[in-house]
Amino acid sequence: CTSENFGNQVLVTMAPRYAAATAAILAATLSGVASFAPQHSAFAPKTVHNNLFGTAKSAFFQSNDAVSASSDTALWAATLDGAATQTVEDYVKARGGNRVIKKVLIANNGMAATKSILSMRQWAYMEFGDERAIQFVAMATPEDLKANAEFIRLADSFVEVPGGKNLNNYANVDVICKVAQEQGVDAVWPGWGHASENPKLPNTLDELGIKFIGPTGPVMSVLGDKIAANILAQTAKVPSIPWSGSYGGPDDGPLEANLNAEGTIPD
User: Would the pTM of this model clear 0.85, i.e. be above it?
Assistant: First the structure.
């Protein structure tokens, strides 16, 4: 909008498409209507227990004591249009899914972790009218804590993990799986870099019954390696840019591989 001052009078000119929305907001404010108030989830985080890598602390509540919730607490969320509320379980079932994800471990830090939490909270708000419909547990090194990293403040809670090089924390599959299991998460989001391209992570999480948000281990083991990916493409008769592996195969043609039972290229 633009404003022009004529003495004691201020002329406010608004584009027509914004006029109706402005009037509705003013009417709701003046009449005390609460329809524009943020909608909140009735869900409260479960008690977080101590673990091998340090005590899990809450970055959401002022106190470091996590809030307990009864086991039968339902995760209710109101839709944006004011329609009947639905649970996350109902949402998944309605779309033919069979795995409900309500708690996610962010196995990364920095920009990757920050963007993931913001994006998933935005999605939850657009779908349920509640950005807190999904809980996020962050992994935080002493260095991240000292820097007051943004992703830690955005998460509902965090678990302190060993500092130093990433093999001690974000690239350590054993650490990630240990934290995921202890915190009772439904899924792990690996981000990029660190352990995100290590097939051991999705394979181990699958054994624990935890969803890896990304490709399966067999797919990752093939496509995560550039040479293996090229050989796989050639095996599937996909036209490829000439390289050293374009020769040496059958009749001196492209290299090909006989995939094993897991769908990966044998060592």
Answer: no
